[in-house]
Amino acid sequence: MHITVRKFSTPMLSDAVSYLVSVDKRDGKNNEYVVEIARLNESMYCVFDEVWSEEYLRNCCWMVSFYTLDALFSLELCGRFEPDKRMAFTRRELEHLR
C-alpha cells in the first residue's frame, strides 16, 4: 500500500487546515481522502464546558474530519460521514500500517 499526503485547499474549507491523502493498494484500488482540521465550533462548547473553560475550548480544541474527496463535492452532506467500503481494507492491511 502506498500513501501520499499533501496540503490541500479549497474555498469550501477556508476555515480549516486540510490535507489530501491518496491511497493506492497493491490490488489496484485507489482513492483520495480529505483530512480537515478546524477549531471546535462554538455550538459544541456546551458539551465540554463543565470540564474546560471557554478560553481553553477556543484555543486548544480542534475537530478532525476524515472523508473521501468525492464526498466533499457531493450534494449530500451526510455522505461525508458514511463509511467508504470501496477500498475494502482488511484488518491485516490496517495493522501493517502501524
Query: Please, what is the average pLDDT?
Result: 86
Largest sheet, in brief, is: 4 strands, antiparallel
What's the helix count?
A: 4
Output the structural class: alpha+beta
| Rg value | 16 Å
In total, how many domains does the architecture comprise? 1
**Tell me, what's the shape?**
elongated
What's the end-to-end separation, in Å?
13 Å
Beta-strand residue percentage: 25-35%
Order of helices and strands: EEEHHEHH
Q: Could you name the ranges where pLDDT drops below 50 across 5 or more consecutive residues?
A: none
Number of strands: 4
Strand order of the largest sheet: 1-2-3-4
Helix content: 10-25%
Descriptive notes:
A hairpin with a 7-residue loop joins β1 (2-8) and β2 (16-24). The chain is 21% helix and 34% strand. It has one domain (2-93). It is α+β, with helices and mostly antiparallel strands.
